[in-house]
Amino acid sequence: MRAIVLAVSLVGASAATMAAVRAEGTCKAPFEDCVDIDTVDRPTDKRGFVVIQVNASSVNPSDVDGVESGSCANGCGADVAGTVVSCPGCASLKVGDEVWGLGLKTYAEYASAPEIGLGLRPKSLTLAEAGSIPQVGMTSYVCLKRTGLGTPPGTPMPAGNPWTKENITVVVTAGSGGTGFMGIELAKVWGATNIITASTGEGIAFCYGLGATLVVDYNEQVRAQKSPVPPTLRNDDRFATHFWYTCK
Length: 248
Prior knowledge:
By secondary structure, this protein is of the alpha/beta class. It has six helices and twelve strands.
């Protein structure tokens, strides 16, 4: 999954309207050729929902699929980072807070989101950086947690480190993609001993910089090979695989 940051810099028509991305019908052209910027009504106040002045969002494969399949006629986009302008009935957020998270139809000047889907922007991230993380970050977090502890979807998310053993090896299948780079960092933070992934070109150094133990250049490996671990390492106990995280 690749996330492309989208800095929102659109010009709305009035205080009651805004500029927003729309796409009519299905489209197989490049993403940017499929969408238009229209003038639409701004989100209205709804108790428990936050209206955000959008600073940044990002384009994930699911967003591209939505545009190409014709489901962006009334808006699209989910990742969001920006400033709270309205928050009736909110329990923790207030007007003026800079937030990040998942919203509704976020390719626009303003977007709505349930308060539960947002959090305060980390001080270590710019708004543009924060707008590129929610979907890929949540995907990686949930998948590694579920895989590590063997908890099925629909059950409460377990707290703490997902590894119950020592000397853990995790394979992340596409380390330089959106969910991949998050997966490497989370595995590292959670104490995985070995983190194996695949990339090519500049992505190799990028993955090592994130904390990968072994990065396989997939252009140099036999594509039919079932494991990303080179044959010389398959019998090496250091690289006995405990968890696979397939990034799609």
